[in-house]
Amino acid sequence: MVDEKGQIVDGDTVMAMCAHKMMDEGALKKNTLVATVMSNLGLERALEKRGGKLVRTQVGDRYVVEAMREGGYNVGGEQSGHLIFLDHASTGDGIVAALQVLAIAVRSGKPVSELAKSAMTRVPQVLENVTLATRRPLEDMRQLATSTAKVKDALGAEGRVLVRWSGTEPKLRIMLEGPNEAKLHTWAKDLAAAAKKDAG
Q1: Same domain, 115 and 144
Q2: What is the mean pLDDT of each run of 10 residues along the chain (200 residues)?
Q3: Are residues 18 and 96 part of one domain?
Q4: What Cα–Cα distance (Å) separates residue 101 from each residue in 44, 45, 118?
Q5: Helix (H, G, I), strand (E, B), or coil: what is residue 78?
Q6: How many domains does one find in the chain?
Q7: Could you tell me the pTM of the whole model?
Q8: DSSP alpha helices (H): ranges in the chain?
Q9: Given 119, 137, 162, which residue is the final one in a domain?
């Protein structure tokens, strides 16, 4: 969505807004939201702070829907804004998602910018895409594995590292989250360089 100030409110923030409201009303099944591994760590922390839980799936709305059906959950989605409200529709629906947010704004009497700000605090997130000639299994990419382990150790519980092959392009996707964005950029470049060495 775009709020009244012209700022983008991404899918993670929209999910946080909707999940909080539904938890307050006892409407979020099992107090659980389903999202992909790409969703910001801030979403997970915002839910945990209120006694909720985030279930993560691999990237793709079909995996989100599968996990929702298997676990008996009713809300899920992706950072991209593809949201699923199973109480109202069996697939992602932009109009349903928009109506959910507008209903929260109307009932609370607060503008979307204010609701978004209070819904969650984003953890800095850096994405790096690397095009490689060969698509090797990640477990065979030794230098990348070593570099990834070092970054994970440095971040500890303060952040996350996700390295995966794109499902649609010949690219390795590197995602880092943590408190220091400058460090994240440096580490992302290091991981990309390691992947290139592994690829020869």
Answers
A1: no
A2: 94 96 95 95 95 94 94 94 91 90 94 95 94 87 94 93 86 94 95 90
A3: yes
A4: 19, 21, 14
A5: coil
A6: 2
A7: 0.87
A8: 11-24, 41-49, 61-71, 94-108, 112-119, 142-155, 181-199
A9: 119
